[in-house]
Design goal:
Blueprint (H helix, E strand, L loop, with lengths): L16 H11 L3 H10 L11 H14 L1 H6 L6 H13 L4 H11 L6 H10 L7 H8 L8 E2 L2 E2 L5 H15 L6 H9 L6 H17 L1 H8 L6 H13 L5 H8 L4
Antiparallel strand pairs: 1-2
Helix pairs in contact: 3-5, 5-7, 7-9, 9-11, 11-12, 11-13, 13-14
């Protein structure tokens, strides 16, 4: 995707890549799917109604041409365009420092669980650069820290922390990081529902992939009762945990 002939990015009469993206989204509008999305994301605004496979196809094309150009001027006034930016970052290739810089600009835009989780699920470059991505995530755990010039209390902490929680469950439930992940989950303090559910989901996955340290953690943690009980519930719902283990987990509910 490129700028219109004879113009420069930013010319008022030019048909830009961002206009092309907007037109493509509306060409793929599905009103019923938009209603379905709205039912799952009640806080989301201005939903066009574009299915995820369509967004992924668009994101791959953008990432293969000039993802920086797109992200530098990407629009944020529809649900799908914010979602698309997160998927583009997942498919972007280049220096990891550059990609993480753009990710840092994107995270403050996250205000919905599905935008958060789709971005995390797509950001598979984290498997290749585990330490670099881990180091990028750590400042978000600091309540007093400042990221992009904004103190923690001026940012959307619920979804910042959910982003960290979901990144951890996707890429860091392994022997090298599990103790750090469990410590992080234990210290993510925020009253947001979507953070609590993200931590509960992460702990359920941790129980499957790293059972022994997770069992120890369940017996000694600082989780609030809601998050702890949701984690136990998700473990009980898993097909990957034995009935005997589920019975023992049920007895742990607070």
């Amino acid at each position: 995707m490129g700028a219109g002939a004879g113009g420069k990015m930013g010319d008022t009469n030019e048909y830009t890549v961002h206009d092309l993206v907007r037109d493509e989204l509306y060409k793929n509008m599905d009103v019923e799917y938009g209603k379905f999305t709205a039912s799952l994301s009640p806080g989301a605004g201005n939903i066009i109604g574009v299915r995820i496979p369509v967004l992924r196809k668009m994101a791959k094309e953008i990432a293969s041409v000039n993802w920086k150009e797109y992200l530098d001027g990407a629009r944020d006034d529809t649900f799908e365009e914010v979602m698309l930016q997160g998927i583009v970052l997942g498919y972007a290739r280049g220096k990891i420092d550059d990609i993480l810089t753009y990710m840092g600009r994107f995270i403050p835009k996250i205000d919905d669980w599905s935008i958060c989780d789709t971005c995390c699920n797509t950001f598979k470059i984290a498997n290749q650069y585990q330490q670099e991505v881990w180091d990028f995530l750590m400042p978000y755990l600091d309540e007093q820290g400042v990221i992009d010039g904004k103190p923690a209390n001026e940012r959307n902490r619920e979804f910042e922390l959910r982003f960290v929680a979901v990144m951890m469950l996707n890429y860091y439930l392994n022997d090298a990081y599990i103790d750090k992940v469990l410590y992080a989950y234990d210290h993510m303090k925020n009253d947001g529902y979507y953070l609590k559910m993200g931590v509960a989901w992460g702990l359920a996955e941790a129980y499957v992939k790293c059972p022994e340290p997770t069992k120890v953690f369940l017996n000694n943690n600082h989780l609030d009762d809601f998050t702890f009980n949701k984690a136990i519930q998700k473990m009980q719902e898993s097909f990957r945990i034995t009935p005997e283990e589920k019975a023992a987990l049920k007895a742990m509910k607070r």
